[in-house]
């Protein structure tokens, strides 16, 4: 098995890593500890045991440093690089018609829309290729120009005593 160590550090890199040990971000501190320990000649296994982390964590830090240099000690976004929105433009144009129609006409037992019911209806009607979560549904309503709170306020029940029940 091949041993994995960090390359020889320059004085400037050592200074930056030493400074990183005092960072308020735990990720940066851990990466600096790993790189400095490896520069001292400690193996991946020894570093992992000393820092109470996995060997994979140590290997990722070392590989990251070889690829990115000092940028590897900074925390990066974990957001996916390719985010696609589940609603096509035609689907967003059909969304107001669905919201302004009773959920019962789409086979639901309830007379008021919820984001879950709306997402299920959009999937059943072919507006989306898969069942989306409520966050995606909320974003779709925003993109379609629908104020969800206002839409809920203008929804009415067919119950004749609805207004009396609604007011305390």
The geometry reads as elongated
Radius of gyration, whole Å: 27 Å
Q: Beta-sheet strand percentage?
A: under 5%
Low-confidence stretches: none
**Strands, total number:** 0
Q: End-to-end span in angstroms?
A: 74 Å
Q: Helix share of residues?
A: 40-55%
Count of alpha/pi helices: 9
- Mean pLDDT across the residues is 86
- Report the biggest beta sheet as strand number plus sense, adding barrel if it closes: none
The succession of helices and strands, N to C, reads HHHHHHHHH
Structural class: mainly alpha
Give a concise summary.
The model has no long low-confidence stretch (mean pLDDT 86). The chain contains nine helices and no strands. By secondary structure, it is mainly α.
């Amino acid at each position: 098995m091949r041993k994995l160590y960090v390359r020889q550090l320059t004085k400037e890199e050592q200074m930056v890593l030493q400074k990183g040990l005092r960072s308020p971000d735990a990720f940066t501190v851990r990466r600096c500890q790993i790189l400095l320990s490896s520069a001292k000649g400690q193996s991946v296994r020894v570093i992992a045991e000393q820092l109470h982390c996995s060997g994979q964590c140590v290997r990722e830090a070392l590989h990251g440093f070889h690829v990115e240099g000092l940028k590897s000690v900074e925390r990066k976004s974990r957001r996916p690089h390719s985010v696609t929105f589940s609603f096509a433009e035609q689907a967003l144009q059909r969304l107001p018609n669905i919201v302004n129609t009773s959920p019962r006409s789409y086979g639901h037992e309830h007379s008021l829309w919820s984001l879950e019911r709306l997402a299920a209806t959009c999937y059943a009607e072919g507006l989306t290729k898969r069942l989306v979560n409520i966050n995606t549904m909320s974003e779709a309503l925003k993109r379609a120009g629908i104020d969800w709170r206002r839409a809920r306020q203008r929804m009415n029940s067919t119950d004749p005593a609805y207004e009396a029940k609604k007011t305390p």
